[in-house]
Amino acid sequence: MSASGGTKAIVAALSANLAIAVAKFTAAAFSGSSSMLAEGVHSMADSGNQALLLLGGRRAKRAANEEHPFGYGRERYIYAFLVAIVLFSIGGVFALYEGVEKIRHPHELEHWYWPVGVLLFAIIAEGFSFRTAIVESNAVRGDQSWVQFIRTAKAPELPVIVLEDLGALLGLVLALGGVLMSLATGDGVWDGVGTLCIGVLLVVIAVVLAIETKSLLLGEAAGPDAVKRIRAAIVDGDTVTRVIHMRTLHLGPDELLVAAKIAVQRGDDAGEVADAINGAEARIREAVPIARVIYLEPDIYREPAPAAG
């Protein structure tokens, strides 16, 4: 997995979530808090998310073969989509169910110090994980806003981890609020309300991630800046005079396909055209290193005929 895959952020989040999940389930067992139980399932789901992201990154490294001539780069998109659809949704639906049940059948919390202590510990641990994800993301997002970064990132891991950690922190605050309100009022309904809010939060994050990763699975073009650099690299002003039309497609986060019809001089022979294409391919790879698969078709450019009338 490339640096843009955010391996460090994934490992940090996985380590934090495994420890937090054990603590949450222990607190839920001692206190009977449904929000703690929902948060425990949330942390287990998050741990599964990170394991899937690591697995997707590993499988994406497989070399191309006859059956998959463009390689396996999109495996990273598939596993990110599974994270969004399956695990986040399972965590969200479970939390919604637990919240409704606790509101319908509330009971007083026991050993309240268990959930409060674990939630405070979890907030600190998730804060460190979230900080790692922010640092990793800042290294690649440039001057983009966070919304732009999540919507345009070609490597799915960092947006997933950022949203996951943000959701985890908000979920912990909601769970703590539910527990504290139950303690203050003596009414266990508040614990169920907190659980219900956690479920809504997880489902919203699942929908956002599903929309973004679906776009990557369908196939996205290179960003505007990369397209501009590719067009400038193709034209040498001598043999290649212009780009007639061009298409780009991400085969994976770190692999780009470029296909273009280019205009060459009418009098050039086959050798000159072949040399021009080879030179253009070299310039493209220098300008945009992830452009690994390049197809350039030479043609004679003809000015479009003026419209009648």
TrEMBL record:
It is found in: Membrane. SUPFAM superfamilies: Cation efflux protein cytoplasmic domain-like (SSF160240), Cation efflux protein transmembrane domain-like (SSF161111). InterPro entries: Cation_efflux, Cation_efflux_CTD_sf, Cation_efflux_TM, Cation_efflux_TMD_sf, SLC30A9. Keywords: Membrane, Signal, Transmembrane, Transmembrane helix, Transport. It holds the Pfam family Cation_efflux. It is a multi-pass membrane protein. GO terms for molecular function: monoatomic cation transmembrane transporter activity. Residues 11-218 form the Cation efflux protein transmembrane domain. The keyword Transport applies. Residues 1-23 form the signal peptide. GO terms for biological process: zinc ion transport. GO terms for cellular component: membrane. This is Cation diffusion facilitator family transporter. The lineage of its organism: Bacteria, Bacillati, Actinomycetota, Actinomycetes, Kitasatosporales.
